[in-house]
Amino acid sequence: MEGLVLQTLSSAIIPDLKINSERLRADFEELAQFGASPGGGINRLALSPEDLQARSWFANRIEEAGLEVNDDDAGNLGGVLPSPDENARTLLLGSHLDSVPEGGRFDGSVGVLAGLECLRVIQEAGVELPVHLEAIDFTDDEGCWRSLFGSRALTGRLTPEDVNDAGSDNAPFRAALTRAGIIPREVFNAQRPSDTLAGYLEVHIEQGSRLERANTEIGVVTGIVGRTTYDLVFQGQAGHSGTTDMYRRKDALRGASQFIVRAHDLVRERYGDGVFNCGNIAVKPGAFNIIPSEAHLTFEFRHVNEGLMAEMERALISAARESAAANGLTVSTEVVAQMPAVSMSGKVIQTVEQACDDLGLNHMRLVSYSGHDAQMLSLYTPSAMIFIPSADGISHNPREFTRWEDVVNGANVLLRTALRLALKS
Ligand SMILES: [Zn+2]
Q1: Could you give the angle at the alpha carbon of 140 between the alpha carbons of 373 and 132, nearest 5°?
Q2: Helical (H) or strand (E) element with 277
Q3: Is the pLDDT assigned to residue 208 strictly greater than 50?
Q4: How close is the Cα of 141 to the center of ligand 1, in Å?
Q5: What is the pTM of this model?
Q6: 8 Å CB contact between 407 and 24
Q7: Cα–ligand 1 centroid distance for 257 (angstroms)
Q8: How far is the centre of ligand 1, averaged over its atoms, from the C-alpha of 384 (Å)?
Q9: CA of residue 43 to ligand 1 center, whole Å
Q10: What local confidence, expressed as pLDDT, does residue 21 receive?
Q11: Residue ranges of the alpha helices (H) in 327-403?
Q12: Residues that place a CB less than 5 A from ion ligand 1
């Protein structure tokens, strides 16, 4: 009984605000014009003219709403609703305006626009918060140049190798940054001290079909999978395809093929929540009548548990060595990219769930199998992600679609969560 009274009291202090669906929709339709492709998709690659147009449109929307524009040295672009308390921390609500080639209209855009809409609603209602609220677009989430560039900059995870030319060919990237008015040597200034942040919230389409299949309105993300990418080169010996004895061949492609099949089986059998993909292979000399001397492939694997990531890595590399040995080959292995698995904040997850309950929306917890800016932010400040259903799970595709009522639900959960976090921090 006492618990019930307390609960009623604490929810009574959260103002009962809702986002303006028509205004959000008008923004969404306008934004979708930047980089619109004939097939109904979006080509808004990071730092492209279309991306820069979308960003200046977003800056105008921020100013029109009477909010402050905050653009940092890594090109991250935010709109700020300041707290009366100048020394307050900032609660970030964000995602990204860039897209993959022939991407969809919802990926990233929904999160940035929902953030802006939350700020407008709170400002119009005259609600003063003990935190600054900032709706933010992060530069190059999709990795046209550098995956999660803006969110890595803000959280201090950029290295000189990401932008400098010494030792690597960053010239085209540096030129793209410069064209966008971003000075490569100054991108490190975008880091914000973590004690100036109150947290991070991101609404995003699920890009899978778990919510739709479970007939669930909101997904509450508990963690984002880690991802490791490897380059493997199997080396054998070229030879005449007709005259070489079948049992004396050192066929690099045979070894590589065995590895790929073993890797799939191993991940299915031993790591039920993990995934593996090998999507490219190049064979030398590459003629139908010559035994392959070299097979060069790239594979990636993902899992939400860091301990199991390490275990999968050992198992996959030993499968590669065994497949090489069984075929008289050598194999070289090199890590080319690594993103850690991360957990969202337990406290913020619970707040999102309370917000869903307040709004009468059903919800489920799930893991994200795709990378997001929240991956970087969650290592730095208490973070959570709010997923909304993707029709048929289709994404990174012009056919990407989310029902408008689901977008509105996601934006309202974002608003309610932000208010709950702000008024209790
Ligand atoms: Zn995205």
Answers
A1: 50
A2: strand 275-284
A3: yes
A4: 7
A5: 0.88
A6: yes
A7: 33
A8: 14
A9: 14
A10: 98
A11: 346-359, 373-377
A12: 107-108
